[in-house]
Specification:
Layout: H1 42-63, E1 98-100, E2 103-105, H2 111-125, H3 133-143, H4 146-160, H5 163-168, E3 182-197, E4 201-215, E5 224-237, E6 240-250, H6 264-273
Antiparallel strand pairs: 1-2, 3-4, 4-5, 5-6
Helix pairs in contact: 3-4
Length: 281
């Protein structure tokens, strides 16, 4: 299947998700990374379900608590302290005003707007569409500052046209998946924070999970999950936030749960049935 088979989903690392991760192999010694899911133990499932219910009840009670304390502001969109966690509850402030193709635009000129822009830009910059020349050019023109985009286009063209790179991740020389396989590259933002902000420049760190690989029977590069934090340098240009540079690092990586990898068919079906998000935060 072609790159477009990943629905409207954008995803993976800023440079196409070529980072290597460990893959949990199923039990049974088959060596097949796509094995039928194992049913959880009854006692563990019961304990987990009870725990979730307790946490949910506590969360609802906390959310509905009306203590009426003076000076408490629960609607602030951001924090004035760089690096301090900002609330993610609805603020009443519209986060975006328009779109450039499928990419949101028109972010507010404040900390919330900068975080929204960085989270949204992380999705297309790590998507399967970056492996298609025309779509890649559209993405770069949409998210990068005009004086940066032209130079970045040339550098990215070299990376995504490199035959050795494409072969290592299991794609054909034209950047498409082999017949019978579906290429998946998606970024799922988990959170963001302001590192610095001065009105027309912002530094925003986005923590996200990445799905990357080829789904389908016989895949030599099965879909795996990775975790990254990418820090974006943003500049206010032409009434919107635009990327000028970024830096990616691994993690933070959570501890894996006791789950067995799904079969190749289940993973391919999930990609077809669950469209990826084009907006975050």
């Amino acid at each position: 299947m072609s790159l477009g088979d990943d629905n409207d989903g954008f995803g993976s690392s800023g440079m196409g998700g070529s980072g290597q991760t460990r893959t949990r192999l199923p039990e049974g010694g088959t060596g097949d990374p796509y094995a039928p899911a194992r049913r959880p133990r009854g006692s563990r499932s019961l304990i987990g379900a009870v725990g979730v219910v307790v946490l949910l009840i506590a969360a609802i009670a906390f959310a509905n608590r009306g203590d009426g304390e003076a000076g408490t502001d629960n609607t602030s969109a951001s924090s004035n302290t760089p690096g301090k966690q900002a609330p993610t509850a609805a603020t009443g402030v519209r986060p975006v005003t328009g779109k450039n193709g499928t990419i949101p635009t028109g972010f507010a000129r404040d900390e919330q707007g900068a975080q929204s822009a960085a989270s949204n830009y992380a999705i297309p910059l790590g998507s399967a569409y970056m492996f298609d020349t025309a779509r890649r050019h559209e993405i770069v023109d949409a998210v990068y500052a005009p004086d940066i985009a032209a130079a970045r286009q040339g550098a990215l063209d070299k990376v995504y046209a490199d035959k050795g790179f494409l072969t290592r991740i299991g794609l054909q020389e034209d950047g498409k998946a082999p017949n019978g396989l579906t290429f998946i590259s998606r970024v799922i933002p988990v959170g963001s924070k302001i590192e610095s902000f001065d009105g027309d420049r912002a530094t925003v760190a986005v923590w996200y999970s990445s799905l990357f690989g080829l789904a389908g029977e016989g895949s030599q590069n099965p879909v795996s999950e990775s975790w990254y934090t990418t820090t974006y340098q943003l500049r206010w240009v032409g009434g919107d936030w635009k990327v000028t540079d970024f830096e990616q690092k691994d993690g933070p990586v959570p501890v894996g749960r006791d789950q067995t990898a799904s079969s190749a068919e289940e993973m391919a079906d999930a990609v077809d049935q669950f469209g990826g998000f084009t907006y975050a935060r």
